Amino acid sequence: MFSKQTVAVHVKGMPVKVHLVSTGAVSVKTKFRDATKTGMLAMLDFMLDKTFTEWMPIWVMIIEHPEGFFVIDTGENANVNDKNYFKSSGFFANWFDTTQFKFIVNKEEEIGPQLNDLQIPIEKIKAVVLTHLHLDHIDGLKYFPSTEIIVNKYEHDKPFGDLPKLYPSWFAPTLIELNQQYEAFDKAFYLTKAKDLLMVHTPGHTYGHCSIVFNTDEGCIFFGADICYSQQQLINEKYSGTNASHKLAQKTYAAVTAFAKEHKTIFIPSHEAAAAERLKTLTPVF
Ligand SMILES: [Zn+2]
Prior knowledge:
Metallo-beta-lactamase, Chain A, six-stranded mixed sheet, 9 helices, binds zinc ion
């Protein structure tokens, strides 16, 4: 439904390819995406909402960095189509995940086959970096049993809305503490020796939610995951109905906006179809 996008950029003059692939499609309650209230009221509002959004992508980003290839999030898998998929997570999770969301994921859209299509062997992946632990970001982990998985320790210690029953049995990620300041962000962690690729703490959606900053010669590619559903939401300071903390979400919007005003920033939320075109044309927020 959403075609993959590849852009050729450079780091210190060296060519790097960045790919965006969608591991299927998701639709959510309209007021889950576009809230007019906050906190519990927003939650009540979207649960009572009878309308769903259009189909949206579930992006995974692959960076062919000279220090090694990085996979950012792992997307969804085709088992999510099975109506019993959430049963093991308990009554509430089963009700919630089968009534508030809709998924369409084909087997060939999973991250494994997509890497295959790109002729990238799994062994070439230096690390998988998870922005947070929600199912549509971790359900492709099954392809990476021998790859290093990097997770913010705080996200792991204080998850919000994750479904541990869906973690692979072998799941034992490298937990890192984000203990550096980076520009507008209080907490960051460098993923490369060149210090051009980093995780920054962008809480709100979950307490430990992270974004990925990739500084290229052509501009900063900012994988914002679930900070918001679209760039327009960020610019207009509109929020989704699903933040662990509205206050933290507001702080994160302010930090990302300040950063994007200082640097040419190409903003890629996990579920925005238009992000693919912005990546291709390297179109910044401001
Ligand atoms: Zn999420």
